[in-house]
Amino acid sequence: MLDQSLIALASAAGAALASAAGTDAWTAFRERVVGVFHRGGTPGSGVVAGRLDRTAAELEGADPREAERLRVLLGASWQTRFEDLLEDLGDAERADVAGRLRDLVASAGRAANAASAGDGGLAVGGNVDIRAAHGSAAAGVMGDVTLGNPPQPGPEQG
Fold first, then answer.
1. Per-residue pLDDT at 13 exceeds 70
2. What's the predicted TM-score (pTM) here?
3. CB neighbours (10 Å) of residue 16?
4. 53 closest CA partner among 5, 6, 81, 17
């Protein structure tokens, strides 16, 4: 029987996994989860990898209106897997795996708060202060910019 702190950890790890699936952080997160289950040469890492792939595929194929509900269900399913893993370990190995799960949860939190931008965009993970004064323009990313008053329309525009 696991104590409350390990159950909470398994829950956080399941939620982190479900949140990471389908994001830029997924590949690295997936490999770390496989490593947690594969500790010390334990067979079955291929099974875990397959389950992780199915989790990501389910979320990627989900209707956007159902994605959050599915994410919660998959997180709960992975919580159970993490609890089962922790229950099957001796004290020393359980402490090691718990530490690795804490690291996973922390890395998922950092990844969720990381800034990202598409092509031509600017992503900033912190404070930005951009100022313009006296008729100038300032921006992190600028397209076509014209400063000053627009030209007066000619007779053909009038």
1. yes
2. 0.68
3. 24
4. 17
